[in-house]
Every structure is written in C-alpha cells, then in structure tokens.
Amino acid sequence: MSIFYKLSWFFKQEKKRYLIGITFLILTSFVNLVPPRILGLMADQLNRGHISWSEYTLLILTIVIAALLLYSFRYFWRKQIWGGAAKLELQLRSKLFRHFMEMDRTFYQRHRTGDLMAHATNDVSAVQEVAGEGVLTLVDSLVMGLSTMVAMVIFVNWRLTIVALLPLPFLAVGAWKLGDKLHDSFDKSQAAFSRLNNKTQESVSGIKVIKTFGQGKADAAAFNAMVTDTIQINKQVFKWDSMFDPLSTLLIGLTYAITIIYGGLMVVNHSLSVGQLVSFIAYIGNMVWPMFAIGYLFNILERGSASYDRIEKLLAEKPEITDDKADPNLAATDVTGDLVYHINSFAYPDEPNLPVLHHINFTLKTGQTLGLVGKVGAGKTSIIQLLLREFDKYDGQITLNGLDIRQIPLELLLKQISYVPQNNYLFSTNIQNNISFAKTNAQKAEIISAAKKSDLHEDIMQMPRDYQTMVGENGISLSGGQKQRMSIARALVKESQILILDDALSAVDARTELAILKSLNQERKDKTTVIATHRLTSVMHANLILVLKDGQIVERGTHDQLLAAHGWYADMWQKQELEEKVGE
Ligand SMILES: Nc1ncnc2c1ncn2[C@@H]1O[C@H](COP(=O)(O)OP(=O)(O)OP(=O)(O)O)[C@@H](O)[C@H]1O
C-alpha cells in the first residue's frame, strides 16, 4: 500500500478526476447488485406457477435500466481512472526523458542504454498500472466484494453465505502467489525479448561489418540460439499461466457445488426460496472478480512500488556538470574572445590516480587556428573534452574572454562551440534535417552553402532525392567520408565562434581535406578553430601547433618552427610526405 503514499502527489494533483472515477466505480458495484436480485424475484414468480405480467414487465424494465446505468457508469469510471493512469504515464515518461537529456557523460558510463530503456518502458508501465488497475482492483475488491456479501446475507441467508464462500479466499491466495510467479517469469520473458531486440538492432546496424568479415552464418546461428532461449523462457510463462486457470475453475466450481448442494437442501427444507437460490448463484458471479482482484492487487502494488523506487533513484541522480558556479547574466558577446588553457593536471573520474593531461598551457587568440597532433592516445581528445565541459574536475582552469568556462552557463558555452568528432551521429531522417539539426530554422540556401563548403553538395545532388534523401539509421546508406562531411556541414550551419574538428576528416582523401580546410579558412577568418588530427597537412597553416605525448606538450610552434626544430613533428612530416608521394 506504500505505493499509494508514494504517489500521493499525483492523486492530490488529480483529486477531482479520481473522486469522480471512484464514485462511479462504487455506483457500478451497487447497480451490479440489482440484476441477481431481479433474477431471483423472476424465478420465484415462475416457481409459483403463475406470472403477473405487470410485475414481470416491471422486473424486466428494472433490469434494462440497470444495464443502461451500468453502461454509462462504466464509461465514466473508465474514462476518469484509465485517463488518470495515462496522465501519470505521460508525466513519468517526460520527466525521465528530460532527465536523460540533462545528464552528462558519467551517467551514461554508469548505465547501459538497454537498462535506461527498460526503466523508461517497463517500470513506467508498472507504476501506471497502480494508478489504473491498482485503484480499480482496490475499490472493486472492497466495495463490490463487501456489498455483494451484504446483499447475500440480507436477501438470501447468512449461513449459506459463509459456507459457500469458504473456497474463495483460496482463490485470492492462489491469484497472489501464482500471479507473483507469473509476473517473475513474465519479467524474464520481457528481458529475453529485449535482448533479442538488442541483438537484432545490433546485427542490422553492424551488417556491413558482419558481411565483410564473413560472419553472416555465425551471426544467424547466434540469433537462433537466442530465439531458442527466449522460447524456453516463454514456456515458463505458459506453465504458470496454465496452472492458474484450472485452479480458479476448480475453486469457483467448488463454490457453485457447495451452493447447489447446501442451498438445494435449504430449498427442500423451505428455509430458502428457489428465487433466493437463483439470486445467490448470480451473486457468486459478482464475488469471483473481487477475490481475483485482491490477489492481483498485491502483485500490482508490489511491482509498482519496486518500479517507482527504481525510477526515483534514477531521477535523484544529479549531473556532475552543473551551472552552480555559472553567472546567468552572461550573454554570447561576453564569452567571445581569447581561449586560454592553464591545466596542471586532469584525470578521468574512473581513473583518478592516473592523470592523462599534465601542464597544458597555451593561448589562442580569437580568429586563430590551433592544431593538436601526436600519437594515438596522446591526449588530443581529452584537451577538447575539457573545453566542452564534459568533465569539470581538474587542477587548473580554461578561460574564454577571461572567464573560467565553469562560470559560463553550459548552454551558452555550448552554443559558442561546434564540435565535429570522428564518428558523429546521424539521425534516421533526410539529409536536409541532419544538416540543419543545430539550426532547425535554417534556410535551404544556408544548408546548400554549408554542404558546398564541406565538399558534399555534388555527392548530394547525385542521390535519388538530393537533400530529401533519407540517410538510414545512423547514416547507414552513406560512406564514411560522406558522413564526416555531413557532420562538418551540420557544424557550419550552426555558425559558432569556435569550431572543433576532432579527427573529423580521417575518412576523406588528403586532397578533399585540403579543399575543405581552405574554404573553412576563408569562411572563418575571425573565428577560432581547433583541429586535432593525425594528418599533419591539416594543421600546417595553423597559428599554433601543439605536439602531445603522454598527455604533455612536447613541442609547440608554427609549422615552419616545428620543422626547424627537427623533432617528432619534422620526422612525421617527412614520413607522411614520403607516403603521399609513394601513394601517388
Ligand atoms: N573516458 C575515459 N576514461 C578513462 N580514460 C580515458 C577515457 N577516454 C580516454 N582515456 C585515456 O586518456 C588517454 C588520452 O586519450 P585521448 O582520447 O585524449 O587521446 P587522443 O590523442 O585523442 O587519441 P586518438 O588519436 O586515438 O583519438 C588515453 O590513455 C586513453 O586511454
């Protein structure tokens, strides 16, 4: 029952709706008492051997009116109570979605996507059931059960009531216990089904890799094994389900048998009329559902409560990156200016004793270009992630126009930056929408211009529906180079102060890369650009190039200065130049 207390905020908010719904539910239970009583009165008339047509018509009329009332009362309680449950579902779902949007990287490192999906679907449904089915079963089992019992005692006989209803509490216990098992196995079946879904999704998304590695047959075999496993788990659901039906038939049958034997004897002894026995048998029909309901109620409430706790726990998690220290009065113009790094050391939260950046100090004036180069794992992306405020805890500070970036509201900061990673995410919509993702009101001309600057326009015009061509899930229908260029076009449409290309042109050839960088140079003369790359030609025109090794700056300067220094950069330049010549 604690779940009703936990959800009291919602019931208070929807007080009127639930009051109306419960009132109609109670009225339905009372009207439900009428037909059995009428049937009994009719049977008594028939038993007397003569029928008074006026009385008979009145009885039929009463049944018709009761049926009409039941129809409208049911409509009203369903509308109110199911409507309430749907509203709760909507509120919880949007709350969770908003929360997912607010949370940062560390949250997504802690939780797997599949689990988050399960919270947003199964757990929300279980809580929704409390506000719908839970309220219905609680009111029904109490009001309908008790009122039917009272009617049995008043209109029929209290002894028969006690004796006949003896098996029904076992029905309640059976519904509770077996229902528990059924729910457990149902949960397992759901989990197996979602594993199957994940597998299907992963295989379809990774179809290129699967095919090129000749793993098609092996993958199909793995899928078949999962299907067999899922069927086994589902068999368990059917097992509990098929045990439940015979049990309820047995207990209900027993109740009817007792009624007919004991009630029949009472009719023979004239302590009960035939009509009363008929009414009683009809009342038993009214009692079966409330008994089931009590059993169900425990399951619904238990599951709902556990699910609600899980949702609350998730919602209670706070993002580590907050605007606590931020000045809400800052505007875009306040944060346009020089970018200065003074990082003494930075370690990722899951490896706090292993700093990955040491003594990163540099200044980048507005309009300048920074090149970050170095071996794999040298720390290029880590430097960029700090500017994007994916991590806030480090020794030192990064300033933009003299302001510590932690003082700048995150939304304002990110509006100033366009980040293009090596593998950007493309949505399964058309090219136009993907490019204008960060500026949904962008004009077609802006989109085309961004595509031209990214050397993508010609490719798009070759496609079946040019800018309206659908790109498939995560751009499956595009080549790696097309995806990267589309990400750059998306970043250009945003027109932000700082553009970051993090290995963002690795899948295009050197000539195309140079063409793109040249047009970026012209376009972004007064704006800051950061380029992290393995291909040194990409940064040769940068105002400052930092060579990183094990998280430290080991060389710094312009292209010419670094060549003159004869260090790693000069060596690498020669190697890459040679490779290019050999390639040609
Ligand atoms: N989320 C993380 N948690 C813990 N360590 C990480 C995390 N991301 C990166 N690292 C580690 O930090 C170091 C620097 O990685 P980083 O991605 O910054 O290198 P990089 O120079 O960008 O490499 P690449 O050229 O492959 O992109 C590496 O040792 C890497 O293993």
TrEMBL record:
The subcellular location is:
Cell membrane
Protein topology in the membrane: Multi-pass membrane protein
For the ABC transmembrane type-1 domain, which residue ranges apply? 19-303
Q: Where are the transmembrane segments?
A: 18-36, 56-77, 162-179, 247-268, 280-301
UniProt keyword annotation of Transmembrane helix present: yes
Domain annotation ABC transporter: ranges: 340-575
Could you name the domain of life of the organism this protein comes from?
Bacteria
* InterPro entries xrefs: AAA+_ATPase (IPR003593), ABC1_TM_dom (IPR011527), ABC1_TM_sf (IPR036640), ABC_transporter-like_ATP-bd (IPR003439), ABC_transporter-like_CS (IPR017871), P-loop_NTPase (IPR027417), Type_1_exporter (IPR039421)
- State a single Gene Ontology molecular function: ATP binding
Where is it mainly found?
membrane
Sorted alphabetically, the keyword list is: ATP-binding, Membrane, Nucleotide-binding, Transmembrane, Transmembrane helix
- Keyword field contains Cell membrane: no
Q: What is this protein called?
A: ABC transporter ATP-binding protein
Organism encoding this protein: Lactobacillus bombicola
